[in-house]
Amino acid sequence: MPNKKQAAHIDELAELARAEGLDDYTSEHRVGEDNIKTLGLDVHNPVFLISGSTIVLVVVFALALPGLAADVFGQWRVALTTQLDWFFMAVANLVLLFCLFLVLSPLGAVRLGGPDARPRYGYASWIAMLFAAGIGIGIMFYGVLEPMTHALTPPLSATGVTGAERRGLAMAATIYHWAFHPWAVYSLVGLSLAFFSFNKGLPLVMRSALYPVFGERIWGWPGHVVDVLAVFATLFGLATSLGFGAEQAAGGIAYLFGIPNANWLRVAVISLITFLALGSVLRGLDGGIKLLSELNMGAAAVLGVFVLALGPTWDILSGLVQYSGAYLRYLPELSNWVGREDDYYMHNWTTFYWAWWIAFSPFVGMFIARISSGRTVREFIVAALLAPSAIFILWMTIFGETAMNQYFLEGWQGVAKTVREFEPELSLFVFLERFPLTLLTSALGVLLVLVFFVTSMDSGSLIVDTMTAGGKIETPVGQRIFWCIFLGLLGVALMLGGGLNSLQALALASAFPFSLVMLLMMVSLYRGLRAERLLLAVAEAESEAEAELAVEGG
Amino acid sequence: MYSRIGVPVDLAHTDTLEKAIESAAVLARAFAAPIELVAVTSPSPSEVARDPHAFGEKLAAYAAELSRRHGVRFTAHARVCDDPTVALDRTLFEAFHELGVDLLVVASHVPGVREYVFSSNAGWLASHTDLSVLVVR
């Protein structure tokens, strides 16, 4: 028997656990329990059928009646970014604060996968993957474009601001969108999924993250709705980015080689991306996604160092410090929606980004979850918030500072022109014209865009397959191939038939229900982690008591 | 002739492994060789077990039961693989290689959804490894 003091400690912990209505949040539900296995498929019923058929119907609608679809979905987009601006901004702020709270609280010590689990990927590969599968592609299109845009039209109605202050504000406004906030959103979803899956044995699907709120009902309709929405957001989000991305990549290629940016070129780009993604799908997580992500990081680093070395190196380095400071200084103003007059920046940039990040969160979150067992909550959040944010700040400063120098100091209008005419696909290439070896660096740029898309498509197929298979990891490889080709076809159909904008609006619209899910997720995760920590404390106290007893007895 | 026999196991479909297990047991007795059972799981929950630890326990229990039933020593080796859909073959091969197995007895044509995995699996192991492979149908 444990001694009196130890017994009292154990009782005290157990009493505390009971008083808090502690549940260990394990379920009898088994992975794949609701799956149907037929025709060589292994898919969740009804998530697969509902999401698959609805997606086809919506796409047919968008292609058959493009005008009506654009009207209907277009309105949603406007309503979402103008009416719900406060809501998205509040949710994003809250999620970031919640993540910081977890880092500082003792709950941060909980290890994903249990106390004995060890990370399966080193930091370098882990960061490369979470960057490349997520929003890494953004560095290619917005690294030059966004700082220049805000430098030309400053946010916060600060039109009178000039010189270094104006540059600082432009960089702060850019960093605000790409660092910390989006990664907090992804961290929350990733953490919730990883915790309830690796620690609690629940299937790796979105609904599991809400188990503490809904209990066993989550295996019924409330859960089906959440999972179907997750599939929608992921597929529409990926298909429209693929469509837009192909248009932009084709634009870049056309510009570089002086050929017309015709439909055949765009279809060729999507086909190439799909074909490469299929190859990567067949090589799996380690042989495909991990390898491509590392390749991407390497190639991006080469381009970044090239611009850093041949550009205004000193300005960039001192800019890093100044702009990080500017970010912190402007953060309270930028993240506050009350009394703002710069509607254009707040709605078309901030709210749009927030909705987009949230719509992508099931995809990116689930992917991060899959590669994160063995890390503690604290390690997870610190790395997922800091590393990608640092990369973005570095990249945006290198490219933004150089572009602003080109405009303000050298008086060169090239990049500013692509901003005024909103041609994000050309900003980078026009920017690179001011450097030697233009053709080589531009080709590297095109290659990077393509590989980023291949990685996103591959990880997207992986995730959609898991989502529609009830969280099952060991599914027939054919299913992943199906989703990859489906995504490619969706991209081509929407691009040729029109409807990319409508479908993108639809993906954005899913951000609203997901922000609600995210609010519940914070409650769930908090409850789950608190319970886990108490259960671990009880187990630890018991084993210590036993060990002491064994020493005394021996 | 053979000193160590390996058998890949799919814990979700043990009923379809009977014949392969029996063949392995006969061979094991003939060559006085132990049998190494290898099964692969992912870090996240599967239909077999809620975590890799529980999976390992299930496999160990299965091996113990087989040892009792066949009177030959079956040892369990659970391996964790991040993407079993694609990397199952390679994970199995690495495990058998590390264990110093020189004969594989592989069940093929497990009916149902993973049929293709195991059929291609036996094929992959036969064509990509230098081990002797007995494919049991």
UniProtKB/TrEMBL annotation, chain A:
GO cellular component term, pick one: plasma membrane
Keyword Ligase: no
Recorded topology in the membrane: Multi-pass membrane protein
One Pfam family per UniProt: BCCT
Keywords assigned: Cell membrane, Membrane, Transmembrane, Transmembrane helix, Transport
Tagged with keyword Transmembrane helix: yes
Membrane-spanning parts: 47-66, 86-109, 121-145, 175-198, 219-244, 264-285, 297-314, 351-368, 380-399, 435-454, 481-500, 506-526
GO MF terms held by the record: transmembrane transporter activity
Subcellular location: Cell membrane
PANTHER family given in the database record: HIGH-AFFINITY CHOLINE TRANSPORT PROTEIN, HIGH-AFFINITY CHOLINE TRANSPORT PROTEIN-RELATED
Family: Belongs to the BCCT transporter (TC 2.A.15) family.
Protein name per its UniProtKB record: High-affinity choline uptake protein BetT
TrEMBL record, chain B:
All residue ranges annotated as the UspA domain in the record: 1-137
Entries under InterPro entries matching the protein: Rossmann-like_a/b/a_fold, UspA
Coiled coil regions in record: none
Pfam families from the UniProt entry: Usp (PF00582)
SUPFAM superfamilies documented for this protein: Adenine nucleotide alpha hydrolases-like
Protein name: UspA domain-containing protein
Organism of derivation: Pseudohaliea rubra DSM 19751
